[in-house]
Amino acid sequence: MKLVVGLGNPGERYASHRHNAGFLVTDHLAGECGISFSLHKFNGIIGRGIISSISVLIIKPQTYMNLSGVAVGQVARFFHLDPAEVIVIHDDLDLPFGDIRIKIGGGDGGHKGVRSVIDHLGADFVRVRFGIGKPSERELVEQYVLNPFSDSEMKMVPGFVERASNAVSEIISRGVQAAMNTCNVRRADGDREIL
After folding, report:
1. How many angstroms separate the CA atoms of 183 and 110, rounded?
2. 190 part of a folded domain
3. Which of 99, 92, 91, 103 has the alpha carbon at shortest distance from 191?
4. Alpha carbons 143 and 12: distance in angstroms, whole number
5. Which residues contact 173 (CB under 8 A, 6 or more apart)?
6. Could you confirm whether 40 is annotated as catalytic?
7. Which of 48, 49, 121, 128 has its CA 20 to 30 A from that of 30?
8. What is the pTM of this model?
9. How far is it, in rounded angstroms, from Cα 117 to Cα 148?
10. Which domain holds residue 137?
């Protein structure tokens, strides 16, 4: 079994915010795979289904970003999942807008949701990082992540969400290393390889 986690803040108010990229990706993935979010357990909204013949749980924690790890830890313990079986999708200020990267383990990079998951699960889970870029001044970071994508960005967001969703499917179907070899390779023209 694999646990796919989208990080974000619950409620319509936050739906299109940059910090909710994880929710956008899990919504797309669930829709593509015919998985409905029908369970309300473990401080989250959960969908259960099959991707590439593998049983999958998809969860959107409802604890707000800073406490995301509470839900993730509860699900992982209940289903006896190792951190390596957990895939966390989150926004990333350190990547250019639209850049998608897969990573195993590491620190939290200043992301409070990732920090919470590490606190409750350990660091050795798989991350799908969704680049949102960053503002020019550090003190604007909180305002930046808690605001919607700009109109020009929104035109490109669906394509990037699809790429991130495809990256998750690749991890599940082919393994992390194979997915990294596809997703994390830069083409000669400077663009990321599209899955």
Report:
1. 23
2. no
3. 99
4. 17
5. 51, 52, 54
6. no
7. 121
8. 0.93
9. 24
10. 2-183
**What DSSP line would sit under 68-108, residue for residue?**
HHHHHHHHHHHTT--GGGEEEEEEETTS-TT-EEEEES---
How far apart CA 8 and CA 60 sit, in angstroms, is 7
Residue whose tokens read 């899990």: 26
The answer as to whether 174 is a domain residue is yes
Segment (H or E) for 48: strand 44-51
User: Tens-of-pLDDT digits for all 195 residues of the chain?
Assistant: 999 999 999 999 999 999 999 999 999 999 999 999 999 999 999 999 999 999 999 999 999 999 999 999 999 999 999 999 999 999 999 999 999 999 999 999 999 999 999 999 999 999 999 999 999 888 899 999 999 999 999 999 999 999 999 999 999 999 999 999 999 875 444 454 444
Q: What total of structural domains would you count in the chain? A: 1
Q: Give domain status of residue 189, yes or no.
A: no
| Amino acid in the structure at residue 97 | F
Q: How many CB atoms lie within 10 A of CB 162?
A: 17
Residue 192 lies in a domain: no
